[in-house]
Amino acid sequence: MPGPLLAVIVGLATCQLGLYLTTVVLHRALSHRSLTLTRRPLFAARVLIWVSTGIKPREWVAVHRKHHAFTDVDGDPHSPAVSGFFTVQFANVVLYKKSANDPDTVGRYAKDLPPDGWDRALFDRGWLGLGIGTGILFLVFWGNWHLVVIAAAVHVGTYLLASSAINAIGHRFGKRPFTGQATNNQWLAWLVAGEGLHSNHHAAPTSARLSFSSREIDPGWWVVLALRRLGWARVRHDELHLRPQAVPAAAAR
Ligand SMILES: [Zn+2]
Ligand SMILES: [Zn+2]
């Protein structure tokens, strides 16, 4: 296989790894407590999040919980209804950083995730994590820098575009089985580890499973099931718990 093609495939694969870690660990486990990981798998996930995304979990959790607290109204960190579709789709990282750097956001929405010794020593240094991730690519490609650059650029570019699409497309285009701006897009769900079923998620945020019917497919849930089978995760509830405010769109007509 030609080197550049292999580099693109590696970049896409590590992007998917980052998206699955984001949905299962940062989103479903830490933000909504819809599942709980046991100690060692959680630590491994923290290391992988650090080297593949450089994200600080408590910041991600705080920004995301704020999104649920102010969905599509003033105060939402990344709503297309507030900031515009193109800004959220293509500059979400700027919106995210602005919200994450606000000490009030982290102080208010991630009180349950205070930094521990590992955070202070390593995981709070996002650039160090990304540097180590780049070093691993350097070993994979045996020092061929232009392949490292291709793989890293594909990884960063697709991760940012795909995770932004959950907030931009997932609040603008698609089916709305429940009232509110959030939408379901099965095609997007395939690309972003199930997160494209975003209307479902806003209707039942404590559900570890984002698919509500046999016609909907949530690949992130398959990972949760595998983790549970290995004894590495406990799911909060198997049955569907809709929020009291979740109104099926058909009932609202
Ligand atoms: Zn949303
Ligand atoms: Zn959520």
In short:
This protein has helices at 3-31, 39-53, 57-69, 80-83, 85-100, 103-109, 117-123, 126-140, 145-168, 186-191, 198-203, 219-229, 249-252, and strands at 35-37, 233-235. With 253 residues, the chain is mainly α. The protein has one domain.
Write up what this structure looks like.
This protein has 253 residues and is mainly α. The protein has one domain (3-252). The chain is built from 13 helices and two strands, in the order αβαααααααααααβα. The protein has helices at 3-31, 39-53, 57-69, 80-83, 85-100, 103-109, 117-123, 126-140, 145-168, 186-191, 198-203, 219-229, 249-252; strands spanning 35-37, 233-235. The protein has a two-stranded antiparallel ribbon. Helix 1 (3-31) crosses helix 9, helix 3 (57-69) crosses helix 6 (103-109) and helix 5 (85-100) crosses helix 9. The site of one zinc ion (ZN) has 7 residues, from helix 1 and helix 3.
Notable features of this structure?
globular; binds zinc ion; mainly alpha; 253 residues
Layout of secondary structure:
Layout: H1 3-31, E1 35-37, H2 39-53, H3 57-69, H4 80-83, H5 85-100, H6 103-109, H7 117-123, H8 126-140, H9 145-168, H10 186-191, H11 198-203, H12 219-229, E2 233-235, H13 249-252
Helix pairs in contact: 1-2, 1-3, 1-9, 2-8, 3-6, 5-9, 8-9
The chain binds zinc ion (2 copies).
